[in-house]
């Protein structure tokens, strides 16, 4: 009887925590949806249509905005799903698309941030070469490859995401990793666990660990070169890139941590289950909230005059002054060396 009472107590605690976390998730999803659609839509309008001069930075930030806009545009489906007590009335196709778009956004964003860090590193190490060959045409081609890679890695969610009707006549949108309707067999459960584990590890490696390792290496090289050249004051575009990358790290790191912890979940481990009940909704909400952060960072990071127009603020954020100034310095230094050699 004591065990039954303990189990009932845990169940009541989990149910209460779930309701609180689901309500908090709805609020955060709603804010992210409103800010994300309007903010990223504004970035797409300005970067895609209002700015006459398209630079490489504009291409990078435009693609980031498109990824975040598409994701936040689908957020009302997740809001409705949570508000309806996890009943999915939108059909199997939207169930698959909603999940695939979420991970497409994650992979596309982190891949673009990796490409941006490599672009910054190349601009610092080889500024003259970058000024000659760093073109918007090449940037669009790299962005396309990035989108294709992100789609390929997120495509399994189009396969595994499925719908099922339970005994209460509620339709769930869930990950059917075993592609089966019968999970009574031990072999089916083992297949589900193996694929679930593989998906989480692949998501962590390709969506976080490997890209951020490249980002850290690239920005370490950039910092070393800047310090050696005594260029301690970076321009606004460079500060914004650092801010966007940091924002992505802080928003997605907890999500990956709890995803890895979820693999070791067992019914008997009440402390871990409680942490997951609390942590997973919060970490997921924080990851979702990242999609509305970038437009805010574009406007406010490094901003000295808050009264200037939004268009001017975005133009300053997407500028190429940092790259051009470095290449100009390298070029002028080369010319000076040639003059000295000629005079001697």
Automatic annotation (TrEMBL):
Record keywords: Disulfide bond, G-protein coupled receptor, Membrane, Receptor, Transducer, Transmembrane, Transmembrane helix
Annotated membrane topology: Multi-pass membrane protein
Subcellular location: Membrane
GO molecular function: complement receptor activity; G protein-coupled receptor activity
Cellular component annotations (GO), alphabetically ordered: plasma membrane
Chief localisation class: membrane
Highest taxon listed in the record's lineage: Eukaryota
Transmembrane segments: 26-46, 58-79, 99-118, 138-160, 200-226, 238-255, 275-301
PROSITE patterns: G_PROTEIN_RECEP_F1_1, G_PROTEIN_RECEP_F1_2
Sequence ranges assigned to domain G-protein coupled receptors family 1 profile in this UniProt record: 39-298
Family the entry assigns: Belongs to the G-protein coupled receptor 1 family.
Name of protein: G-protein coupled receptors family 1 profile domain-containing protein
Species of the source: Salvator merianae
Source species taxonomy: Eukaryota, Metazoa, Chordata, Craniata, Vertebrata
């Amino acid at each position: 009887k004591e065990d039954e009472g303990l189990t009932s107590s845990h169940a009541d605690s989990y149910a209460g925590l779930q309701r609180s976390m689901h309500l908090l998730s709805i609020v955060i999803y709603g804010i992210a949806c409103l800010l994300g659609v309007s903010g990223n839509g504004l970035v797409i309008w300005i970067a895609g249509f209002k700015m006459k001069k398209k630079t490489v930075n504009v291409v990078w930030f435009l693609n980031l905005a498109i990824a975040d806009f598409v994701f936040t545009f689908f957020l009302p489906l997740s809001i409705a799903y949570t508000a309806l007590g996890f009943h999915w009335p939108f059909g199997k196709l939207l169930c698959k698309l909603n999940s695939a778009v979420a991970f497409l956004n994650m992979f596309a964003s982190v891949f673009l941030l990796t490409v941006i860090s490599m672009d910054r590193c190349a601009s610092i190490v080889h500024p003259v070469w970058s000024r000659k060959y760093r073109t918007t045409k090449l940037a669009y081609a790299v962005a396309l490859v990035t989108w294709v890679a992100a789609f390929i890695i997120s495509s399994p969610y189009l396969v595994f995401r499925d719908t099922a009707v339970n005994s209460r006549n509620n339709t769930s949108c869930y990950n059917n990793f075993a592609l089966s309707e019968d999970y009574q067999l031990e072999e089916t459960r083992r297949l589900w666990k193996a694929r679930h584990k593989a998906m989480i590890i692949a998501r962590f490696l390709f969506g976080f660990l490997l890209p951020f390792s490249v980002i850290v290496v690239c920005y370490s090289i950039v910092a070393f070169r800047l310090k050696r050249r005594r260029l301690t004051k970076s321009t606004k575009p460079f500060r914004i890139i650092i801010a966007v990358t940091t924002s992505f790290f802080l928003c997605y790191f907890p999500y990956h941590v709890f995803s890895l912890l979820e693999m070791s979940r067992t019914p008997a481990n009440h402390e871990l289950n409680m942490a997951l009940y609390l942590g997973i909704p919060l970490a997921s909400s924080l990851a979702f909230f990242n999609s509305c952060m970038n437009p805010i960072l574009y406007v406010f990071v490094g901003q000295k005059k808050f009264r200037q127009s939004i268009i001017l603020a975005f133009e300053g954020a997407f500028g190429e002054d940092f790259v051009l100034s470095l290449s100009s310095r390298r070029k002028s230094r080369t010319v000076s060396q040639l003059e000295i050699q000629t005079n001697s």
